[in-house]
Request: fold
Amino acid sequence: MSAVVSIIEPRLRPMQETDVNRVLEVERAAYEFPWTRAIFRDCLRVGYTCLVYEGARGLLGHGIMSLAAGECHLLNICIHPDYQRRGLGRVLIEYLLKLAKLRGAQIALLEVRVSNRAAYNLYTQMGFDEIGMRPAYYPARAGREDAMMLARDLTIPLLPSTR
Reply:
């Protein structure tokens, strides 16, 4: 007798209001200063692109993107710490950028904490470039932390990374 093992691949799907409690659990596990329930609800209410990454054991992450005037802004990219460094963040970002291009975006923007080197490295590997700084943008234990502003031209195909 042989057992059939089914492995459920994580899948991206639109976030629903009923997901917010689980999204908050992931957000709180990943960030010292997480978004609030009200922020997620507002993002859903105003029609931002809100996705969740669902796996066999529940929600693994989420992504929020706004889109207007030919620009997309990646507002929140979050993967639960237990599932980081497995390529899920890259897949989530690639999917959001494809959606943005299909909807007419020509440029993608985001901010990242100066202390978040892992995220910064991922973004630069994915073709994002530094375009400026936002002083005291994020809350931090000792006051505020600066954010690096990054952008990627979506009209230029990304070549395989050599970084």
